[in-house]
Amino acid sequence: MKRKHLSLAIHGALGLALGLSANAFAQERDAAEPGADATRLEAISVTARRREETIQDVPVAVTAFTPAALDRLNIRDLGDLGAQVPNLTIYAARGSNSTVTAYIRGVGQSDPLWGVDPGVGIYLDDVYIARPQGALLDIFDVERIEVLRGPQGTLYGKNTIGGAIKYVTRGLPVDTEGFVQATVGNYGQADLKATIGGSLSDGALRGRIGVASLHRDGFGRNIRTGQDVSDKEILVARAQLGAYVTEDFNIQLSVDWLDDQSGARGARMLAPNPLQPVFFPGSGLSQPLESRYDVRSGMLNVNDTELKGASGVANWRINDDWTAKYVIAKREGDTETNIDFDTLPEKIADVKAFYRDQQVSNEIQLNYDAGGRSRGVIGIYHFDGEAGGRVLNNFFNLLFGDTQGTMFTESVAIYGDWSFDLNERWKLDLGARWTDETKHAVVLNRGYANDSFTTPISTVADFDKRVGFTNFAPKIGLGYQVSDDILLYSLATRGFKSGGFNIRAQSVAVPRSAEPFDDETVDSIEFGAKMGLLDQTLFLNTAYFYNKYKDIQLSIFTQIPNSDPPAFFGDFTNAGKGTVQGVEVEYQWLPSADWLVSGNIAWLDAQFDEYFFKGVNIAKQQKFTNAPEFSGALNVERRFRLANGDALSFRIGYSYQSEVVATTEVVRDPVTGAVTQPITQAGYGLLGATVIWKAGQAWTVTLQGSNLTDKEYLTTGYVIPALGVRTGFYGAPRQYSLSVRYDF
Description:
The chain contains 3 helices and 42 strands. The chain is mostly beta strands and 744 residues long.
């Protein structure tokens, strides 16, 4: 069968049923494909390389999920993907509910301040989301999610040095369809989601609109004000319109909007603050903190984010061999947040922050597939972004300063990725990306007379600087088809993330902080296997990777050298070099038509080879953040067909990760000898379960439970010795919910 028409079908994205295990379970195949063999796993389609391929045939480490798989695994937002994807660590960044921190194979970025780029690219319908605020997307009207591990520069836009997460919304249907879903749960959860789509004029004009209201009371409260903390209050709306002008040409327009008015996340003091020794972790002067999410903050519970986006996509099949795609998008966002680093009533480390950003991107792709021995994609990408804001710092109610300014980014890239069938068994993949990027920083950081922040008394940084970065990132891969069921592959590629400027610069006290930091790179070698065994009842996908990580960009909360008393300084620097290697195993086993066993096992070894601090190489004492040595998940699912034709399924799942370092600190200062321990979470496991009752084709009732043992575990935190701060943020407690969905 020729492949030449696949590219346009992919670009239209009209209802492909894709995923890691979605079609593996008989329940889904029975509904979608009557007569399918329920005793075998089916090949799964992905578009990881910008064209349709089965996940067993693509020589890339990729995990994918369909809506049904997301429901079964109780994945409510991108943060829940971590347990189900090898060597992925992803969670809400510190005090926010919807700001994302993502690491893949030890590569990422935890600092959400403007001027700092993420190390894992997140994409919403082919559009790169440049800022982490609001990027921890909730699962809503999704067609599929794909997670690509390792550098992806030859196929995707900016900052995919660690990998890429693709969130693809549902396509535009010809026939009228939609759903309404209501969910209730503990902690006052009350969610409502609804969509409708279909043709407006005999299929030539199609549309879809969806809305969601996501509400949950707080996991804890502020014992001083009675306000909820760690609550959720999000509104989402998306709309799409497609004009199918001819069989060979269509245009699709999309808009999306998100309003997150959730309160700040509750933080827990992990050690007494020496500046307020009367307060102890877990208790107050007169009122105990009953929950690990309770706080006694003196700041207002404000953490608001609004995002808006619009995109246009034009697909054109030029001829039987070539298709073209043009994507234009604009996104903008505004965030206001209060961060009480010390969590205490007194004003020790109180920060009020305002973030703003906007971006415009343009991308042109040409996809070739003549059904012969070669196929591939070439493209041009342009990004123009502006991110900035103001951060107001109140330290001890004595020192008042701000961080303000803007980072302008312009990036142009040319990329290509091509595959060649050398013969029936050997395949060669070649790719490259050339990037030219300019960062322009305008920074004005000052001290003020009081907390009105209107009367400046000093200037600690005032500069307007530009820096340019150029990078060539090649890729070469070789695949060997041992049999129809076994593919072996090897891959060598380079990842790149541009440098920039430290927006928190203190150029008077630390002159180097006003100078640009370098770009970081990863040179990666990977060997993998995709195997369909036991007569296609067992899928076993494995990968070993070895990465040389250079000029690692790190954000460190420290103090101004030789300051007395110690004065806070937010440093941003290139740590040096590291070596990261690991093994990943993903498995699916269908022992019978009604049982499915799936999961993953991962090993990660991340070591600094070079880390210079005050002229001394401290690599041996430093550890990578968000890089657990061992992690994995096991899901066991059982499905019953009831006498009346309804389907009932059960899942129990367990995920585990070993000890992880959550924050970046210099453990021992080689000059002063001062010791600072980073926040570390010991190994832990989480238990979850799902029950799904599907009544006919229209009604679905789902009972979900997560963290059923109510395990206490930290995800991240702050360590600021100069301010006496050691604060941690806990993952979600035990939650359970009941959903009723009607499809039409």
